Amino acid sequence: MYRQMRMWRHDYRNHLQTMKALDTPIKSGNAMADAILSSKMSLAQAPGIDVRVDAHTHIPIKQRISELDLCCVLGNLFDNAIEANDGLPEADRMIRVYMDMKGTQLYISFTNASSGGKQRKVGGRFRTTKSDEGHGFGLVHIDQIIEAAGGYLSRNFEDGASTTEILLPQS
Q1: pLDDT in tens for each of the 171 residues of the chain?
Q2: Considering the entire predicted model, what is its pTM?
Q3: Fewest Cβ atoms closer than 10 Å to its Cβ: which of 20, 21, 128, 164?
Q4: Which helix (H) or strand (E) holds 161?
Q5: What is the largest CA-CA distance in the chain?
Q6: Using CA atoms, how far apart are residues 106 and 40, in angstroms rounded to an integer?
Q7: Where is each Sensor histidine kinase NatK-like C-terminal domain found (predicted)?
C-alpha cells in the first residue's frame, strides 16, 4: 500500500501539469496527451534542450490503457529524458518524441541524449541508477502499464543516446 501511494505521488505532478496545459500546439486527438507533451516540451526547452515532438497523429479512442495511464507513460518518459540531458553540454542536449499509428497499434518513441552512464538491470528490467528517494518508480510504472495493456516495450542505450519504443494495441 505504501509503495502504491509513493508511485501515485510520483506521477501526481504529471497529472497537475496535464490539467494546466489544455491549450497546446500538439494535436494528437487526445487533449490530455497533448497537454502533457506540450507541458513537458516547455520544461525541457527551458534549460536549452533541443526538443522535437512529432505527435500529429490521431490517438485512437479505443486504447487498452486509460488516458491517465497514457499520460503517466508520456510524462515519465519525458521526465527521464529531461534528467538524462542534465550535465550535458548544451549543444548535445536533445529529445525526440514520435507518435504514430502502425497498423492498429499506437507507436510511441522517445530518444534522448544521455551521458552514457551504465544502465542497471534487475530481473531483466531496467531500473533507476539514482540513489535518492523519489526515483525508481517511473520505469516500474511504465513497465506495469504497458504489460497490463498487452503492449510491447523496448529500451536501447547506445553511444550517448537512449531510445524507448512502445507499441500499444487497440481494444
Answers
A1: 777 777 777 777 777 666 665 555 777 778 888 889 988 999 999 999 999 999 867 777 677 889 899 999 999 999 999 999 998 999 999 999 999 989 889 999 999 999 865 555 544 555 555 556 565 678 999 999 999 999 999 999 988 899 999 999 987
A2: 0.77
A3: 20
A4: strand 161-169
A5: 43
A6: 20
A7: 68-169
Q: What are phi and psi of 127, to 5 degrees?
A: -130, 160
Of the candidates 110, 123, 120, which has an alpha carbon nearest to the alpha carbon of residue 162?
A: 110
Three-state secondary-structure class, residue 86: coil
Q: Is 96 within 8 Å of 123 (Cβ atoms)?
A: no
Q: Identify the structural domains of the chain with CATH numbers, from first to last.
A: 2-169 (3.30.565.10)
3-class SS at 72? helix
Can you name the residues that pair with 53 across neighbouring β-strands? 97
* Listed residue (70, 73, 84) closest to 117, CA to CA: 84
CA separation for the pair 33, 12 (Å, rounded): 15
* Contacts (Cβ under 8 Å, ≥6 apart) of 167: 102, 105, 106, 107, 108, 151, 152
61 DSSP assignment:
S
Burial 25-34, CB ≥16 within 10 A → b, else e: ebebebebbb
Q: Are 87 and 80 in contact (CB under 8 A)?
A: no
